[in-house]
């Protein structure tokens, strides 16, 4: 019987091992950068970028109205507003007192007044402490700008507002906002603004009313009731609120002025 040579067995074993390693390497899948990206490593477009591409973040354009110049003890004040639809979207002072301490007072008061106008949507904003003359001039010029906006021809219909069918047949009747004349009373001015749609008052509000001292309480008591009565009655023939006779009478006079302008 022939004996197997030890060296030969070692050589055969080594050859078999090498063959196995080569076979394993040939079967291993290659790494593909493209497939790695397909697995979720490609950065996704941000929501902001998507909106920008679709025009979703574009600011709505509006009409601008510049109020009259109001002369104050420290210099002229003039306000310009931007109106979109029936809302004030921006308010700014194109003229304000300057020079000396006026620079500090203007820098303190004007930004606050601008923000208050957009927040309250009316000239009935609080006077900034330490800048009384600038604040009063600002409010007067603001009122002038609002009056010009109300007197301007109706803006083109907004594409997002779809006319609705109503039982009365006033489909698509555009609502309009009208501000009545200022009515001076013993305790201060009263001015009413109404929104009219289809020949009816849908909203009434006092953009000016007596304030300060006990007038604050009387205004807070009477104006909400008068607003509701105006919408319910659809006219200026409403009852005066007990305890706020002067405010009520001024309200009704300004309301009648607004109704006359609206043709109701």
Question: How far is the N terminus from the C terminus?
Answer: 129 Å
Coarse morphology: extended
* Poorly predicted runs of 5 or more residues: 28-60, 156-172
Please bin the fraction of helical residues: 40-55%
Characterize the largest beta sheet: strand count, sense, and whether it forms a barrel.
4 strands, antiparallel
Could you tell me the number of beta strands? Answer: 8
Tally of individual helices: 7
Radius of gyration: 37 Å
What does this structure look like?
The protein is of the alpha+beta class and 264 residues long. 44% of the residues lie in helices and 20% in strands. The protein has seven helices and eight strands; from the N terminus they run αααββββααββββαα. A hairpin with a 2-residue loop joins strand 2 and strand 3. Helix 6 packs parallel to helix 7. The protein is extended, with a radius of gyration of 37 Å. About 19% of the residues have low confidence.
Keywords:
single chain; 264 residues; alpha+beta; four-stranded antiparallel sheet; extended
Would you kindly provide a brief summary of this structure?
By secondary structure, this protein is an alpha+beta fold.
Describe how the helices and strands are arranged.
Layout: H1 6-27, H2 33-41, H3 47-54, E1 63-66, E2 70-72, E3 75-84, E4 87-95, H4 101-120, H5 132-151, E5 176-179, E6 183-185, E7 188-197, E8 200-208, H6 214-233, H7 245-262
Antiparallel strand pairs: 1-3, 2-3, 3-4, 5-7, 6-7, 7-8
Helix pairs in contact: 6-7
């Amino acid at each position: 019987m022939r004996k197997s040579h030890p060296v030969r067995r070692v050589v055969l074993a080594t050859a078999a091992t090498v063959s196995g390693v080569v076979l394993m390497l040939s079967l291993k899948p290659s790494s593909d950068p493209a497939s790695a990206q397909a697995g979720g490593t490609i950065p996704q477009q941000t929501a902001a970028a998507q909106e920008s591409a679709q025009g979703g973040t574009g600011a709505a354009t509006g009409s601008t109205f510049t109020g009259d110049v109001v002369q104050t003890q420290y210099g002229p004040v003039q306000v310009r507003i931007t109106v979109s639809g029936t809302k004030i979207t921006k308010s700014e002072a194109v003229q304000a007192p300057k020079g000396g301490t006026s620079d500090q007072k203007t820098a303190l008061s004007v930004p606050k007044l601008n923000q208050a106008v957009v927040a309250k949507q009316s000239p009935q904003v609080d006077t900034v402490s330490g800048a009384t003359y600038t604040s009063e001039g600002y409010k007067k010029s603001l009122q002038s700008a609002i009056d010009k906006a109300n007197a301007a021809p109706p803006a083109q219909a907004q594409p997002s507002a779809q006319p609705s069918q109503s039982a009365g047949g006033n489909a698509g009747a555009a609502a309009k906002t009208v501000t009545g004349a200022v009515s001076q009373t013993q305790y201060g001015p009263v001015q009413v603004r109404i929104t009219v749609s289809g020949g009816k008052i849908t909203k009434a509000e006092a953009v000016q009313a007596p304030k300060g001292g006990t007038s604050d309480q009387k205004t807070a008591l009477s104006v909400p009731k008068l607003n509701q009565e105006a919408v319910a009655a659809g006219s200026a023939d409403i009852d005066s609120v007990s305890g706020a006779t002067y405010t009520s009478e001024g309200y009704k006079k300004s309301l009648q002025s607004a109704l006359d302008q609206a043709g109701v």
